[in-house]
Amino acid sequence: MLNKILRKIEKFIPKKLFKMGQPIYHYSLALVGATLYRFPSKKIKIVAVTGTKGKTSTVEFVNTILEEAGKKTALAGTLRFKIGETSKPNLYKMTMPGRFFIQKFLRDAVSAGCEYAVLEISSEAAKQHRNKFIDLSALLFTNLAPEHIESHGSYEKYVDAKLSIARGLAKSSKKNKVLVVNSDDTEAEKFLAIDIEKKITYSMNDAQNISLTNDLTSFTYKGVKIESELLGKFNIYNMLAAIKYAESEGIDLQTIARGILKLKNIKGRAEKIDLNCDFPGKQDFKVFVDYAHTPDSLIAIYETFSESKIIGVLGNCGGGRDKWKRKAMAEIADKYCEEVILTDEDPYDDDPREIVDDMAQYFKKKPEIIMDRREAIASAMKRAKKGDVVIITGKGTDPYIMRKNGVKEKWSDAEVVREELRKILSK
Predict the structure, then answer these.
(1) 20 to 30 A from 175, CA-CA: which of 48, 84, 93, 264?
(2) How far apart are the C-alpha atoms of 415 and 410, rounded to whole Å?
(3) Average model confidence (pLDDT) for the chain?
(4) Sheet (strand 80-83) strand order
């Protein structure tokens, strides 16, 4: 409701003046929300995860390890909101809802007897003060790459928004605070420079005897074998972040390994869609749905299956959002995919066909353009042969396709894949 009111007010206020007033507006609402729900973060361990990529997966790894250790947890992130055994999807199309939502969520977690709340915090959340008045116990930093440049104004401001979350940890009233940092990232030193009592780093060098197949990811950590059905080298980074934090909480490595193995799938994150249970032996190709919203993440998912023929389905955002990515994403898809179908994704206020045509010019291998996203997904799977991999990127678990004037078209890549795949296999 507040968003709708704000959108209406915005039409009557000069743009410059409106932007100037936004920080005060967001900060005030954060303060009112925290006060209304009696500052619940002071009563529960808050584990935050931030970074450009890997936030959602890292949050899920932390949660599953804590649960395996017998802890009652709450979780709030891009995919879902969970308190104890109760979980519901996040339909807000924002990583961290603000205003009163997150404070109420934490109050409900405290009331339910949760010991830990694991939160994703995005740069947009930090920019709009949604994480204010949440006393963090730990922060896990995954990585940084150019993202949301138009929204923040520059890459430097984007980085600073992320760093502000770490500064929030430093100011937290919690005792024994922990900062976990990916030391392989180019921005690691900026996080490590922040004054926090306990700093822990992780690196790919911490993982020994790495094995990456199309069915299993495994490595050895301090002599203990870690296995996961979540594929790709990028997931090793996410696991290491969770492992390092869990160790800081005194959880033994055997428990950590069991927790990681129990996490079989993360919706929209290299999510495998397999209907062989319903159609035995008929699906001889693989289909994955992945968010892959940055050039680095697109490379990561494609490289995971680089030994196979890849048929890629992708589009790009509009409405002034990261237009620079169009060229980069097109060139990556052109390099890794044998076939590419460009399609509608999240046009917002831009013309969807213009977005796709803009991308098409950067391909050496001419891509096919199918603007209807359902039709594009179906076409990719129909042409897949034995051993091929169809990779559908850009939406992940996003519940809507965003169109002009804030119109939301209900959507699910995974559901559409299953529906169209059933039609194909039933023939």
Answers:
(1) 84
(2) 11
(3) 92
(4) 86-89, 80-83, 73-76, 116-120, 45-50, 138-141, 178-182, 198-202
Helix pair angle (15-36, 2-10), 10° resolution: 160
CA dihedral 246, 252, 257, 260 (to 10 degrees): -30
> What residue spans in the chain does CATH classification 3.90.190.20 cover?
271-426
Task: Kindly report, residue by residue over 43-97, the tens digit of the pLDDT.
Answer: 999 999 999 999 999 999 999 999 999 999 999 999 999 999 999 999 888 889 8
Q: Which of these, 322, 366, 324, lies nearest to 341 by C-alpha position? A: 366
Per CATH, the number for 271-426 is: 3.90.190.20
Instruction: For residues 385 and 404, give the distance between their C-alpha atoms in angstroms, rounded to a whole number.
Output: 37
Location of each CATH 3.40.1190.10 domain in the chain: 19-262
- Written as six digits, the tokens of 81 are 């909101």
Under 8 Å CB-to-CB from 107, ≥6 apart: which residues? 37, 38, 40
Task: Please report the pLDDT score of residue 149 as a whole number.
Answer: 63
State residue 17's pLDDT score. Answer: 65
**Closest Cα to residue 161, out of 77, 84, 51, 252?**
51
Residue indicated by tokens 């138009």: 150
Radius of gyration, alpha carbons of the chain: 21
pLDDT tens column, 143-196: 998 666 666 668 899 999 999 999 999 999 999 999 999 999 999 999 999 999
DSSP per-residue letters across 206-222:
G-EEEEE-SS-EEEEET
pTM flag (> 0.85): yes
Domain 19-262 has CATH 3.50.50.60: no
pLDDT band for position 376 (cuts 50, 70, 90) = very high
